[in-house]
Design goal:
The protein is an all-alpha fold. Helix content is about 60%, strand content about 0%. It has a two-stranded antiparallel ribbon.
Length: about 325
């Protein structure tokens, strides 16, 4: 290397970047580790694809407002679903391409706030809450603000190590895309049954407030890691995904109702499971915990796994 060459480090490798100056996201989940930094040099060519997907998700989310203005409610929901699918893709593609960037993280948060906070709030207001303008607008504002606060909390805690839910394999609060999906539950029921009661603002407004509270709550909620199926269930999960896709094509609204209610049930299951994790951790700190469980190579141990192993040992003396 000559004296005129650039001696700056090469950040295009798989080494974990320092938490402070790293150019983060878009992240696939709250558990993702930062694996790339360009040291302030801007976006790489590889970062164009995941950020283009994020921009597409933003456009799809905002387009549902246009459909709502035209009273095309089915199209508005489909636009929101497309935004959610694209939002789930951008972080994973960025991770596969090692194309994470601070720009992508900021764009992803802004996109989520607009697509899953402001857009659903306006759609619900135009669909139902406009009949009671004052109360309805407050409920819509609550949903939009809660989404923004949830994303702000997520960004503020990216580099924080002391996150009990994250360390146990869970999320904190309902993620923004799922919050938007849950907020539309009365609309799914209205489209499935054609019953006017599901469009009543006195039902839609309080439900929007409940979803907003779930997003900013400190409740443990399911993550992909906490839902990782065991080896004997993987084929069943593949079959279930296929059935859900078929249901979305044939009975779209009832399938969306099923997905939303199943997620609500999963929240209750996650809360109970996290309580077991806390009890196990408390017992371990008191010296009464079961022996440590050896995890497969390459996998980060989760407190969830430790609790499941301890319970299985109790059932099999």
């Amino acid at each position: 290397m000559t004296s005129g060459e650039n001696h700056s480090p090469d950040y295009d490798d798989d080494a974990t970047a320092p938490a402070g100056p790293a150019w983060l996201g878009p992240k696939a989940s709250e558990h993702e580790r930062v694996t790339r930094s360009r040291g302030g040099k801007g976006l790489s060519v590889r970062a164009v694809l995941p950020n283009a997907i994020t921009a597409a998700a933003l456009c799809s989310g905002l387009t549902c407002i246009l459909f709502a203005i035209a009273a095309e409610w089915e199209k508005a929901i489909f636009a929101m679903i497309i935004a959610g699918v694209l939002d789930g893709m951008d972080g994973r593609i960025a991770r596969l391409l090692k194309a994470q960037s601070r720009f992508g993280a900021e764009l992803d948060s802004l996109s989520d706030s607009a697509s899953f906070g402001m857009a659903p709030a306006l759609v619900l207001y135009l669909w139902s809450l406009v009949e009671v303008p004052r109360f309805g607008w407050l409920a819509a504002l609550g949903l939009a603000i809660a989404c923004a606060l949830r994303l702000a909390r997520f960004n503020a805690q990216i580099d924080v190590d002391d996150q009990p839910h994250k360390l146990a394999g869970f999320l904190t609060g309902v993620p923004a895309p799922m919050g938007a999906g849950l907020a539309f539950l009365p609309m799914y029921l209205w489209l499935a049954t054609d019953e006017a009661v599901f469009r009543e603002p006195w039902l839609v407004g309080p439900w929007a407030v409940i979803v907003a509270l779930l997003m900013v709550s400190n409740l443990a909620t399911p993550s992909w890691k906490s839902l990782r199926p065991s080896a004997e269930l993987k084929l069943a999960v593949i079959a279930l995904v296929g059935l859900l896709v078929g249901g979305l094509l044939m009975e779209t609204w009832w399938t969306l109702v099923l997905i939303a209610t199943s997620y609500l049930v999963l929240i209750g299951w996650t809360i109970a499971r996290y309580a077991r994790v806390k009890r196990a951790k408390a017992a371990e700190s008191a010296g009464d915990a079961s022996p440590a469980v050896t995890q497969p190579a390459g996998r980060t141990p989760l407190a969830v796994d430790e609790v499941d192993e301890a319970l299985s040992q109790e059932r099999d003396p």
